[in-house]
Write a structure and sequence with these properties.
Elements lengths: L11 H13 L6 H21 L5 E6 L3 E5 L5 E5 L7 H24 L1
Antiparallel strand pairs: 1-2, 2-3
Helix pairs in contact: 1-2, 2-3
């Protein structure tokens, strides 16, 4: 099996692949764990691309409800909440590509 340790899922089928890989490598994770990690890692990758380097950080302020974005000196630059007010996992399960696109728009807005 290939090394998927740095693989960031953007769809439910990719989550299934990542979940199987994680479990095969001894990690006790659920599908929700993989989705939550994927959401956060996608936001981090979007920030790095938008800023042309890893200058800002994204962390869960409230798991599955709020992602706080901090700037290069650690000051809050903004908060991203689920588009429909439910949860990021629910949005991912309903339409992952739409969520990824929406997250990218939120990141672009924050870095302007």
């Amino acid at each position: 099996m290939n090394d998927l340790s740095n693989f960031i899922p953007i769809s439910l089928p990719e989550v299934t692949v990542k979940l199987a890989w994680e479990q095969a490598h001894g990690k006790n994770v659920s599908e929700n764990d993989v989705i939550l990690a994927a959401i956060l890692e996608n936001v981090r990758a979007m920030l790095e691309e938008a800023l042309e380097g890893p200058y800002w950080e994204a962390v869960w302020q409230e798991t599955d409800q709020k992602i706080v974005i901090t700037d290069a000196i650690g000051e809050p630059a903004g908060v991203i909440k689920p588009e429909n007010g439910s949860s990021f996992v629910a949005d991912f399960r309903k339409n992952a590509p739409k969520l990824i696109n929406w997250l990218d728009k939120q990141v672009q807005h924050l870095v302007k």
